[in-house]
Design brief:
The protein is α+β, with helices and mostly antiparallel strands. It has a single domain, classed as Orthogonal Bundle (Arc Repressor Mutant, subunit A). Helices cover 35% and strands 15% of the residues. The protein is built from three helices and four strands. The protein has helices spanning 21-28, 32-41, 58-67; strands at 18-19, 48-50, 53-57, 75-76. The radius of gyration is 13 Å and the shape is globular.
């Protein structure tokens, strides 16, 4: 199955995909290590984290670039904070 033919995740739309950290860093034009440092410091755009899986919604990256940090920075998915 090609990448274009794969089904979308439940909350993913073509206009607002989930991005892996490498893609998110590329989108923001910064180093992936910078995103990792921001996650550790609980600053920067809010990631969705499930275990060791980290994803960013493109809309969250856009929101963060426009508005800055949100009050809480890590959104755990189905797990403990």
């Amino acid at each position: 199955m090609s990448a274009a033919a794969q089904p979308l995740a439940p909350t993913e739309t073509p206009d607002d995909p989930w991005l892996i950290p490498t893609q998110a860093a590329e989108y923001l034009q910064l180093a992936e290590k910078t995103l990792a440092n921001w996650r550790a410091a609980k600053t920067g755009p809010t990631p969705a984290i499930r275990g060791r899986i980290v994803r960013y919604k493109r809309s969250e990256l856009d929101r963060w670039m426009t508005e800055g940090d949100a009050p809480t920075n890590v959104t755990p998915i189905g797990g403990r904070r």
